[in-house]
Amino acid sequence: MLQKLLGFDKRTMTLRTEVIAGITTFLTMSYILAVNPDILSKTGMDKGAVFTATALASAIATLLLAYMAKLPFAQAPSMALNAFFAFTLVEGMGYSWETALAAMFVEGVIFILITFLNVRELILNSIPMNLRYAISAGIGMFIAFIGLKNAGIIDASPATFVKFGAFTPASVLAMIGILLSGVLVVKKVKGALFYSILICTIIGIPLSVTEIPEGFLPVSMPHSLEPTFCKFDFSGFFTFDMAIIIFTLLFMNIFDTLGTLVGLASKTGIMDKNGNIPRVKEAMMSDAIGTTVGAMLGSSTITTYVESASGIAEGGRSGMTSFVTGALFLIALFFAPVFLLIPSAATTGALVLVGVFMMDTIKQIDMEDISEALPAFITIIMMVLTYSIADGMVLGLLCYVLIKLLTGKHKEVSITMYILAALFILNYIFA
User: What is the DSSP letter of 165?
Assistant: First the structure.
């Protein structure tokens, strides 16, 4: 039954490994349950309702992916798109959060349509193999950078943009986590990243990084969705500016998801020699449905999470991993006070180790041909420097098309790539 529903094959997989992988993925990405409500509440949305919407939307999308695609990936609101929602649409452009939520909903519906029509799969299959390897390596560096930044190991600098951060309890805990994760992996401890997160959370108590509030109660009832449920405002919606906004949302979501799927699939061993991912359409459809349902509940756009790589690193290979992660999002509704105790510094070790694991695809890139190596390099470095998987992919793809065109190798570029390049350029012009 588990094989039919979730793709779990008892001949090559163990239930314990899949469960630990699902828990590890959840713990590594669980910060979204604290961060998303904090960001969206700045627009005037009810923070408690957004927390419930975030947990429910993540659970629904991830459980759909477990059943439909049977892959060990998890989904939740995109960190890039929730910032776009709050700081660009509402704060920057002056739209109400109800109008911004309506834009998210429309984008989700369009997402479902283009997935059903296989447009996204066509885009994915057009990406050259060397760029696919670069995407995986770039995502690894990107999520390691996220972990280092969140813990304060890497800090902002007005002179050099980034610098080595000060020694604080949080950064010290994160460094302990990195070393502990590495030692446990070297010792081949099953569930190494999971145990590292738990141990660091406990160590964080005397360091005052893990904060236990006064009168702490581990269980609470979920907050009502009423303040945000289907609160759409379509008045003045049908304008050219809104069309550009929806296209931008769609563009960001597609390439965030595509980049993550390519990177994660390369780590599971399911990608064939031609770079094709089995059941990719189903994975994309669960993402599209999750985005639409999330907007109805009161959350920003859903995407596949790069942190899923932590569960894959623990051995997760089937939909059972994502099923466990989705179930934990539902449980988190009732145990929010407990889950919120885990500081982001406690997950830094897992994120950095995942970055190490994902870097191994870089050795498969053809470094002898500069027309292949340069776009791959641009993809990797720009993911980190722009703090965006989507921008890294787009700039790498544009570099690929232009360098092939200018060196007489235009026949190596597909028609789809030329069309995408034109759309990318238009997007940057009108963004």
Answer: P
- 164 φ/ψ angles, rounded to the nearest 5 degrees: -70, 125
Which H helix or E strand runs over 157?
Answer: strand 154-157
User: Is the confidence at residue 44, as pLDDT, over 70?
Assistant: yes
Q: What is the pLDDT of residue 244?
A: 79
pLDDT digits (tens, 9 = 90+) for 366-407: 999 999 999 999 999 998 998 877 788 889 999 999 999 999
Selection from 160, 139, 31, 144 nearest residue 391 by Cα? 139
114 within 8 A of 312, measured Cβ to Cβ: no
Q: Which amino acid is located at 294 in the chain?
A: G
SS3 percent helix, strand, coil of the chain, rounded to 5, is 65, 5, 30
User: What is the pTM assigned to this prediction?
Assistant: 0.75
Identify the bridge partners of residue 397 per DSSP, sorted by sequence position. none
Pairing verdict, β 154-157 and 161-164: antiparallel
CA 176/CA 172 separation, integer angstroms: 6
Cα separation, 128 vs 374, whole angstroms: 13
pLDDT of residue 273: 67
Q: 168: buried, middle or exposed (CB in 10 Å: 19+, 13-18, 0-12)?
A: middle
Please state, as a whole number, how many other Cβ atoms lie within 10 Å of the Cβ of residue 340.
Answer: 16
Contact, 24 vs 191, CB < 8 A?
Answer: yes
Q: Which residue has the tokens 């599209």?
A: 288
